[in-house]
Structure formats: structure tokens, C-alpha cells
Amino acid sequence: MATSPASAPASPPVTIDDIRAAHARIGDQIVRTPTLLSKTLSELTGAKVYLKFENLQFTAAYKERGALNTLLLLDDEARSKGVIAASAGNHAQGLAYHATRLGVPSTIVMPKNTPTVKVTQTEGHGATVILEGETFDEAYAHARKLEAERGYTFVHPFDDPRIIAGQGTAALEMLADVPDIDTLVIPIGGGGLISGSATVAKAQDHPIEVVGVEAELYPSMYNRLNHEQRPCAGDTLAEGIAVKEPGSITSGIVEQLVDEILLVSERKLEESVSLLLQIEKTVVEGAGAAGLAALLEYPGRFEGKTVGTILCGGNIDTRLLANVLLRDLARSGRLARLRIRLQDRPGALFNVAKVFHEQGVNIIEVYHQRVFTSLPAKGLITDIECETRDRAHLDRLMTALRDANYEVSQVELA
């Protein structure tokens, strides 16, 4: 019996043919980033791990793909009037760069509190930047107002079939390079990248599982699909996927095609950024490291699988990166702050320093505290920052200090 038009299933907003067409359209204007096997991360996680280095795009993020695809689909009138977006991140830079390259005027609305470096970078790509509102929602509302007033074309960061098709080209390339991948682990913000990736994965001639990853502080897509109300708030390292409301188009695609969504902790995000720099010698922002964070947080989930994940961006503040690396050294025991109780008498610091010397530990900083302490007037607290070879070396140092009758504790990280 034929299906009546009223009950016929709606055609998907994005198909594999749309993504193939997008790749044909943009392929010679973006970087064909490599997909490489990480032997060390594979040994560490128990999975066979392939990484796609989208942080090697010119603007250091995959967002160029969707932005360029959208720009190339505009008619001449829309191109002449220009495009507008609300973004303080990778979407702004990707759209600005390709719009300028194609001769299309671009306007980016950013919240007033956007870091100056992001404003400068976006202006450097040729966009007109307007600072409006204290929040993203206020900047977004202003961008839509200007769209209506001036006839601009609004380019959404994720909830647009043209954007989704462009983002899906990353997975298209990855699976062309490594057809044996059986599991894709993809970061989720608004859902554009995973919607395109899942569309590609489910069109292959063999089963491919698609797993989404969100920061546990911003479980917006997880909430929507699991009908939960977990809070979306806090300072996450993965600000590129810190989205409070995912798209309606993307949510529908994710609900149909994505097998599972996992939440990752800030600690695993930090560890992943550090590991990628140490092992792969590549700089990745928090959102770009989310896939690896999931492999570290849920090792049993991926053991024995052939996993592909996209390092979707590399735009991380250098000071923040330095902080992440130092915190990782501290957690591994290679950097430590020890709090030691001393008697306030000549030679006290010299004698404790001798223990560090005997154990071959490098002292970096010394902090004396005589006044703001609960100890008696003749007591003092000394914090010593030091550098060791590993956790075992640090443990030997603390044992030697206690054997020398010092009261010592380690100042722990959160």
C-alpha cells in the first residue's frame, strides 16, 4: 500500500549528497587536513586512535568549511549586500576570512566583553566588528536587527543546512582517508559538526557508531535528548562548545543519527590539551580536545575500537595554555608546592633546602609566612615550589622531609 503524502517521512534537512556537493564546492579553497594514527594515544587509551587535524585550517578551526559553503551558495544580490553573524569565536574568523577573500562584505556582532585579541583577529580578517550587549544573546539579537534593517544575510554558526553540509566535509575526508574507522567521537556545541559527521557516517557501507561529547558544565544537547534539566553554566576550558541552547535542525539530526552523548570533566579536558601538545606536538583548544577527553574518561567504552576524532580548533589563549600545562605538570607530580612547618631560627631554611639538594629536587620558588598564620610567634610556614622527575621522585622527597622531622603536606590542585 502506497504511503500517503500526509504520512510520508520528511526528507532529512541534510543528505550525504549535500555534503559531497559541499566538498566539491569548497575543496580547493580550504586546507585538506591530514588524518593520522596516534600510536601513543592508541596505547594510552586501548583504542586505535585517528586524529583529524582541523586546527591546521588557516583560521585554526573547522568552522571555515560551513561558512565557505554558505557564502558560495549566496546569489549575487546577497553577496553584494553582505553577510552578518553573531560570534566571538571561530565562526566569526572563518566567515570573515572567506567573505573578504570572496569580496563579500562581512559584519560580526560581538558582546562588549569579548577579549580584545578576538576582536583584533576578526578585524584582521577584514570584517567590520560591532560590539553590542553584555551577553551573546544580546549580540545575537542586534545582529538579527541589522539583518532586517540592512538586508544582510545572517549566517548562523550551526543551525543551517548549508553550514551543516560544510562541516560534514571534515568527516567525509576522514572516512575517505581511513575507511576502517568504526567509531566517530565528535565534540558537540550547537551540533553542526556532529550533524554533518553523523550524516556521513550513517551513509557508509559498514556500520559506524557516532558518539557526541559535551563538557559536563554545558550538557545542552544531552539534556534535550535525555529529557533532563542539568544546569548549563560555569567556566569551561571548552568554551567553543559551551552552548546553552543547541539548534532545532541539529537536534533533530542528532536525535535520529547519533548513538550516544558523553559528558567530560574539566580535568580530562585539561589533560587532553596537554597530552596533544606533548605527544602530537599540536596546539588544540579545549573544545578541540573533547574527543580525546572522552576516550580518557570512558576507556572501557572505546577499548578495541578504531576511533576517529576531529581536533576541531586550535584557538586557545597562550596564557591559558601555559596554565593548563603547568596544572598538568602539578597533577603528574613533576611540579609541586610543599607546605612545610619550620622553627623561626637561623639556618632553618638552609637545613630544609639541604634535603631538597640531597634528593636531587630543583627549588623554583620559596614563600615564607610569619604573620598570617595560626602557628605560635616562633613558628612559620614555608611553601616551596619544586620540580621533580615524576610522582615517585616527589614521594621520595616527602618521605625524606618527614624522616628529617619536618611536618610537610602537598598543596593540591582542584
Automatic annotation (TrEMBL):
Ranges that cross the membrane: none
CDD domains: ACT_ThrD-II-like (cd04886), Thr-dehyd (cd01562)
Gene Ontology terms for molecular function: L-serine ammonia-lyase activity; threonine deaminase activity
Necessary cofactors: pyridoxal 5'-phosphate
The reaction(s) this protein catalyses: L-serine = pyruvate + NH4(+)
EC top class named in words: lyase
GO biological process, one term: L-serine catabolic process
Family: Belongs to the serine/threonine dehydratase family.
Name of this protein: Threonine ammonia-lyase
